[in-house]
Amino acid sequence: MLYKLREFNDLLGPLNVFTYITFRTGGAIMTALLIVFLFGPAIIDALRLKQGRGQPIRENGPQSHSAKRGTPTMGGLMIIAGFTFSTLLWADLSNSYVWIILCVTLSFGAIGFYDDFLKVTRRTSSGFSGRVRLILELIIAGLATFSIMCTSSGNYYGALAVPFFKDFLIQMGPLFVFFGAFVIAGSGNAVNLTDGLDGLAIVPVMIAAATFGLIVYLSGNFKFASYLQIHYVAGAGELAVICGALIGAGLGFLWFNAPPATVFMGDTGSLALGGALGAIAVAVKHEIVLAIVGGLFVLEALSVIIQVASFKLTGKRVFRMAPLHHHFEQKGWHEATVVVRFWVVSVVLALLGLATLKLR
Known about the structure:
Blueprint: H1 21-51, H2 76-90, H3 96-122, H4 130-151, E1 159-161, E2 169-171, H5 176-194, H6 202-219, H7 222-228, H8 239-257, H9 266-283, H10 287-293, H11 295-314, H12 324-330, H13 335-355
Antiparallel strand pairs: 1-2
Helix pairs in contact: 1-2, 1-8, 2-3, 2-8, 2-9, 3-4, 3-9, 4-5, 4-9, 5-9, 5-11, 6-8, 6-9, 6-13, 9-10, 10-11, 10-13
């Protein structure tokens, strides 16, 4: 919206700053942060009033989590509100990528909201059918991937870029729709599984958003992309504004989600955030890099898959409890220790992901 002000820079020179992605990204960060700060307390009070006893706690989860009983969930509404308003205010709304990412975020958030609603109203730790939820996510992710493919040009249509190789593309054609849908839906569910401790998911999400903010900015700039020998994606630079909005909204939410949390993001937030990261990675042709940068989310998801498969095949469990963060809790790590150490892992993985930009 504010991007349009650049058209009047002939009348007022300083308005030219709205042409710069870096300026608008900074504005998006601050706007999303302020919105969550200002409206967060009112949203939390409303959620607490509507939900009464708050989010149901898993009966088979760590016993220490019983103290969290009564904490309201659906705090992801705060994140989505700040993110959406900030994006609409600062992004170039003529950019197709902006609308695709925004639609994925809101759609995944709606699925998560319905799941949270059922948990709260039915007083159970499980929402609606996991199979139905996954099908809905894959449909939305598939449509988003197809839209991204239609927006892409040249050799990038239906192509998978491989890091460490400057010109290597795997041409998947129409099959890329299924791959992209897997990346987006998988990212959403991986973040969802990671969201089990106060502050655990939101900081790695912000780290991944900051990392991809730099990646999309470089990929969307022809000179930088050529210098680094990464794939140039026209228009992708605008996604830096979206990444900024994610960071700002995440920072605001962390204020309320820091231990001991006064609100949980719930599936409303975790699915939306994960879906947004996945869609950004698909748009900028860095799907494999997302697996590196978001390696913590991948490990959490794999721990659940391994645990379930092992128990069904052998009757034995590999981990003391899944997802992975619960395993370390059962080993005696304090919750804060698990959270901070997982943050450190996220930073290291983000640096490894950024290293792929130069190792070509």
